[in-house]
């Protein structure tokens, strides 16, 4: 058992230290962009959207935002070390220090931002913060702070991270709405929505491929169409119906997004009763056999 545990620890250590320099460069760039967007778009307009930055915004008339964020980061780091372990705490340490530092260094940065169009400010600021958060997430690191508190609540209350996120940031946004007016609450909903979308796109990248899972009575015809007309490999899987328990074949094929329409319409033309699902494939790893007509995926 000890040998297995040591092997697991070695694998985890190897994963966490893979491309470490590149990952910390992404963390630095992401934290810097986040801080600039925070100071330029959100602080002047009292836009509270959650997180330690949101808390700092609420009390910014009394305490400088960078000091509030640093204080929250230190407390969260200690709590993370106690409840989530030293590995999590270490991974959040650099980000916890960088974010408040960059907030302080960029607080006097100015950009030619229109001050009379709040929706434009909301959209631009949200896209930048979503982009920055995506870079940090892509590096597998974190800026700590409220994110650490969310993970602790999720672990201790045995609820999903998503629900813990809604509880914590929901409270912050409500307090922000009470402090600055309820219009801020409506803007916060838009901000959170945009940030989540952009973050996902940056972390996963725009999908270059679609994966088709096709159930059809015309297996050979569909397979030939994909292989000969689209020049894509296919894999035929054995399956059986959950209700009827009848045996059937499922065709799996990875098709470039640019050929999505051609693939979908071609399958429908061959078998109008075909059942198929299509999913985004953000990464296709391994041997590039999906481009080979003679090989499977």
What can you see in these coordinates?
- By secondary structure, this protein is an alpha+beta fold.
- The protein folds into 2 domains: 2-204, no CATH class; 209-291, 2-Layer Sandwich (Alpha-Beta Plaits).
- It has helices at residues 2-16, 20-42, 51-58, 65-83, 86-105, 118-138, 146-157, 161-180, 182-204, 219-229, 260-270, and strands at 209-215, 234-240, 247-256, 275-281.
- It has a 4-stranded antiparallel sheet with strand order 2-3-1-4, with helices on one face.
- The chain is elongated.
- The relative contact order is 0.11.
Low-confidence regions: 288-297
- How many beta-strand segments? 4
Radius of gyration: 24 Å
The chain-level structural class is: alpha+beta
Q: Strand portion, in percent?
A: 5-15%
- Name the shape in a single word: elongated
Helix and strand element order: HHHHHHHHHEHEEHE
Number of folding domains?
2
Span between N and C termini? 36 Å
Main beta sheet = 4 strands, antiparallel
Strand order of the largest sheet: 2-3-1-4
Quote the average pLDDT: 85
Number of helices: 11
Helix content: 55-70%
